[in-house]
């Protein structure tokens, strides 16, 4: 089992629960296209609270990564 330890998902002393696609891509080394494809296929849940930016829950992203690591 891989433990990603929320790879720097902290801002100040507060742990971030959600990441934007760009942040997730940079922190986890996954292409933005790959993340968008997973969202559109329904493999990864994303939220659009402001109607513009996709936000991904860190715990769901890490679970998706573990599932797709060969």
Account of the protein in words:
Residues 1-8 have low confidence and may be disordered. 41% of the residues lie in helices and 14% in strands. The chain is built from 3 helices and 4 strands. The longest helix is centred in the C-terminal third of the chain and has 11 residues, at 58-68. The strands form 2 sheets. A two-stranded antiparallel ribbon has the order 1-2. The radius of gyration is 12 Å and the shape is globular. Strand 1 (10-11) and strand 2 form a beta hairpin. With 70 residues, the protein is of the alpha+beta class. The chain has one domain.
H and E string = EEEHHEH
Proportion of beta-strand residues: 5-15%
Summed up, the domain count is 1
Number of strands: 4
What is the averaged pLDDT score? 83
Largest sheet: 2 strands, antiparallel
Low-confidence stretches: 1-8
Distance between the ends: 12 Å
Please give the count of helices. 3
Q: Please bin the fraction of helical residues.
A: 40-55%
Radius of gyration: 12 Å
Classify the secondary structure makeup into a structural class: alpha+beta
Shape category: globular
Strand order of the largest sheet: 1-2
How would the blueprint of this fold be written?
Elements lengths: L9 E2 L2 E2 L2 E3 H8 L3 H10 L13 E3 H11 L2
Antiparallel strand pairs: 1-2, 3-4
Sum up the structure in keywords.
70 residues, alpha+beta, two-stranded antiparallel sheet, two-stranded antiparallel ribbon, 4 strands, 41% helix
């Amino acid at each position: 089992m891989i433990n990603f330890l929320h790879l720097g998902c902290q801002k100040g002393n507060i742990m971030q629960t959600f990441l934007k696609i760009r942040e997730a891509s940079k922190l986890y080394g996954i292409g933005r296209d790959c993340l968008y494809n997973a969202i559109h296929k329904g493999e990864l849940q994303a939220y659009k609270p402001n109607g513009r930016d996709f936000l991904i829950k860190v715990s769901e992203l890490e679970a998706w990564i573990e599932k797709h690591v060969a």
